[in-house]
Amino acid sequence: MSDQEILPGLEGVMSYHTEFDLRPGNCVAGMKDLPDESVDIVVTSPPYNLGIKYQDYDDNLSTEDYLTWSLEWAGEVRRTLKPEGSFFLNVGASPANPWMPHELALTLRNLFQLQNTIHWIKSITVEPKEADPVSVGHFKPINSKRFLNDCHEFVFHFTKSGKVLVDRLAIGVPYADKSNIARWSHTEGKDKRCRGNNWYVPYETIASRSKDRPHPATFPVELARKCILFHGGEPKELTMMDPFLGIGHAAEAAGESEIGKFIGFEIDEVYLDEAERRLGA
Ligand SMILES: C[S@@+](CC[C@H](N)C(=O)[O-])C[C@H]1O[C@@H](n2cnc3c(N)ncnc32)[C@H](O)[C@@H]1O
Fold it and tell me: What is residue 99's three-state secondary structure?
């Protein structure tokens, strides 16, 4: 991990070159202090309105109020995003509210173009021909006669124009069939292809939730890191933002990717303190 180091006395906390600007409070008001078109990448996961038990935030608005509020904060994201910027919005559903991610994406269609729909796969089973099925990832069994286990969430990649150039091969994968390298001229002889829009990113295994991941609804650092790489550009020159910081996994990804500046907002001081602790800030 380049020249990042572990701070003495803060084992497990990295030292990053990124300038972190973490602000307490409501992101809707907070983002109003940021200049127009000043942010390159937004990677965020707002409350999903699925009744999740946060410290303070009430995750039980009416659908109408939730979507109205979403337009408010996403409007500020649009204003602050550069014309060539990327806005990665992570949202999941629940059996009680399966339409929510789709309703939210549709609500934002007047603000952004939906350039890519990425599926964050938390666990999957593959069944190779003539071999036993292989299951990987984090699988939390539910007991239901009606619903499949939900093993994925969405990451909507919004841009202002729908025409933003990205660096697909920065998160590319080797060809399974190497004969494709010569067959397709666009490979330019390299053994790397687009990984597609199914991104398998398992949660890290932890020993204690309260100690290791004290927040009920996080995304893995690796998911945000892939978004950063996919957006492309020279990291040191980029400004990244997460309006719903939680315990700071997007900020950790920014640090690991050596992003120049990171701005985060979090309404709950307990989560913000934990984010600061993790960043050694
Ligand atoms: C889904 S969680 C984000 C978790 C984060 N991605 C992580 O991995 O740690 C949403 C967060 O938004 C915070 N939040 C809710 N309303 C907010 C607001 N208006 N402004 C800033 N933060 C808010 C909640 O306290 C919660 O921590």
Answer: coil
Predicted model pTM: 0.93
Can you list the domains of the chain with their CATH numbers? 5-166+197-279 (3.40.50.150)
What residues have CB less than 8 Å from 133, skipping those under 6 apart?
125, 126, 127
- Locate the ligand 1 atom nearest the alpha carbon of residue 275 and give its number: 9
- What confidence tens digit (pLDDT) does each residue in 89-147 have? 999 998 888 999 999 999 999 999 999 999 999 999 999 988 999 999 988 888 999 99
CA angle 36, 41, 46 (to 5 degrees): 95
What digits encode the pLDDT tens for the residues 188-207? 888 999 999 999 999 887 77
Closest CA to 27 of 221, 242, 276, 275: 242
Alpha helices, H only, the chain:
27-31, 63-80, 100-107, 179-183, 209-212, 221-231, 249-256, 269-279
Quote the ligand 1 centre to 264 CA distance (angstroms): 10
Q: Which atom of ligand 1 is nearest the CA belonging to 244?
A: 12
Give yes or no for residue 26 CB within 6 A of ligand 1.
yes
Question: Residue 215 CB: number of other CB atoms within 10 A?
Answer: 18
In testing the pocket of ligand 1, which one of 44, 66, 153, 266 has its CB within 8 Å of the most ligand atoms?
Answer: 266
Ligand 1 near 89 CB (within 6 A): no
Give residues with Cβ within 8 angstroms of 211, minimum separation 6: none
Core vs surface per residue 141-167: b (16+ CB within 10 A) or e: eeeeeeeeeebbbbbbbbbbeeebebe
Task: Answer whether 138's CB lies under 8 Å from 166's CB.
Answer: no
Strand, helix or coil at 203? Answer: coil
Closest atom of ligand 1 to 220 CA is 8
